[in-house]
Amino acid sequence: MTASPLPLAAAPLVIGSSTLRNRLVATAHASGFIRDGLPVGGDAEYWGRLAAGGAALLVCGGTTVAPESAPRQGNILQLHRPEAVGPLRERVEAMHAEGAVAVCQLVHLGRETLGAQSYYAPVAPSAVRSPREPTAPRALVGSEIDEVVEAFRVSSAHALEAGFDGIELHAAHGYLLEQFLSPRTNPRGDGLEVLERVIAAIRGMSADALLGIRFSVDASEDVALTPDELAALLPTVDPLVDYVNVTVGVRATYVRDMATERPPVLDDLARLRPLVTRPLVASHAFRTAASIGDALAAGADLVGMARALIADPDLPHKVLTGRATEVRPCVACNEDCRTFDPVLLCVVNPDLAPHGEPRRPAAPLVGAWDPARATGERVAVVGAGPAGLECALSLAHAGVADVVLYEAADRLGGQLATAALAPHRAGWAALLGFYERGLSAASVDVRLGQTAEPGAELEGFDAVVLATGAVETSPLLEAGAMTSSVALARGVPSLAGAAHVVVADDGFGWWPGCDVAELAVAAGVPRITFVTPGTAFAGAIPPESRVQLLERLFGTCELEILPLCTATGISPDGVTVAHRTSGGTTTVPADRVVVVGERRPRGALDCAVPLVLTVGDAVVPRRVAHAIAEGREAAVRIATAVRHRMPHRRA
């Protein structure tokens, strides 16, 4: 057996009455396979697949303990209901079958509604309004605190009846238990007493069940415990639990995006380690073998991940067997994994899909499909953006022997490479690195700087996948504007020296316009005017990303937002801006104008070959997730077709 390159990460750990097979933890998240507050088909399969990837401890999240803490759409598990026990037992059995220890995290949201509608009023220790909510909660009074303790006890009883090995109490992210512990939201000062009552209620049901607790380590403007408050609390709580799990942030900030390149709790481990005698779990933004090693070296006993395991559930096996370069990386884009639409999905992982689907649904555009004419397994993929990269790599992994990847540019990536050049968006570069390593290891014939022609060159193939992408265009280009793609590709020099930059957004509030604004800041532009037909700046990017973006922009420049406005022309005097409400126009002086234009598919190639599929932006320009899913789907269809045609080649 090959020795682990991270020997401590591979070492077993006894924690309470359980033995963990290694030091890697799947921290609390939800599968999304929840309807009307109960698990449905796909839930057990998700957790079983995660356990099969090698993580030792799986913490199931998204589990509330009381009706007033449950959104009315029913997409969060409601464990106070006894009918949850049966389907949860299937989840636990799936995890145990793959050798994982199963823990259920319990939460009461208190004054935080997650922005979702509820049938009931939010409650908290006092009527102090959350900055993330429009109104203050109702203060808990009298015996209602007893009811909160009982809610945790009943839900814990249901979890243990379902077979879970333990319970994790969620006292982080500004939710109810932290609201009790914080003097800013609980002036009575009885928070520790309430927590101790909850712990005693759970311990009273089982002396063997694991019991952990999760805290946020950083202070915020409202509820989160300050470093000194947490330091004073930990020695008291530590003897009462089996492990302590530390993370960061409150509701709007706890899921950091790709601008956070280093796990934030690493800086806190030296302070926390002496305060905790129990196993210490370090969580959040651990995505690489190097950062896992850093956490263990700094004193953590266990390292927790969620999004990294959503992107690649086999990360533990790969890291512990020296195959870390094969990990499909989480890029921390916070797109699909934060929406649960309709279930947990991932931009970079096309294998994550709704129940009953073999992979994420996708439909390449069929230009020709005549497998009977295929005489071999020679496939050309034209275009090395995310769709082409995924297709070429998937074909190689499927065993298709002869794959040629054409790219007209001198680099891989297409628009993905351009996005990776934007300030604070380097997560995309990790995905490009994954594809580059994979293509090299699979010996795919990559031809950079070469345009595939529809003549004899392509006609020598059995199948052609067109992943030629899209071009960004705008009527303002003829008047001297620059597209967002060009500006980002050229980088800081494209805006250097400008005193005033106008960014003409398309009104849909996605990343291109935001990226250009940050590029202008990086270029030292003192004044930026952001013109958008929409109602807001950055209105469509993930909410956590928007919070972090605005924090980065604060105090960097004079940023003026002109909502409900459209840039209609450019003259020597400046940019003509039409106001959608008044019907009038304004001229805004500017040194440079960058426009977020409409992206249109490049012209299709005419290929007289048996199998022709078009994927990604070459079909309709959309998101990275669509490109990757269609690239995978095209590869599966082609590999299946040529294998069926020539079974003797597969003997």
UniProtKB/TrEMBL annotation:
It comes from the Bacteria. Pfam families: NAD_binding_8 (PF13450), Oxidored_FMN (PF00724). InterPro entries: Aldolase_TIM (IPR013785), FAD/NAD-bd_sf (IPR036188), NADH:flavin_oxidoreductase (IPR051793), OxRdtase_FMN_N (IPR001155). The keyword Hydrolase does not apply. Its cofactor is FMN; [4Fe-4S] cluster. Keywords: Flavoprotein, FMN, Iron, Iron-sulfur, Metal-binding, Oxidoreductase. In the N-terminal section; belongs to the NADH:flavin oxidoreductase/NADH oxidase family. This is FAD-dependent oxidoreductase. It comes from Streptomyces rhizosphaericus.
